[in-house]
Amino acid sequence: MSIPLKDFRLGISESIDAALKAESAAFDKDMQTIVREILQEWADRKHHAYTVYAKHVLANSMQTELPGIEPVDAGMIRKGRK
What is the largest CA-CA distance in the chain? Predict the structure, then answer.
């Protein structure tokens, strides 16, 4: 079973294109697979960093906050606009 994919396009520089082509040839993978692996590694590192941050904040009796979300709203279910 394959994972569901989202389409994402962007322009890249010639040097990035050359690096991806070299990696593609060296490891017999298509460029899209290589970029997907790179982005997955990046997302995993970001997730790990946030987890470490959140544990540190909670251990110091502070509240984790996400931009645009008020701390008092965390975990509350909204009932739509009035």
Answer: 59
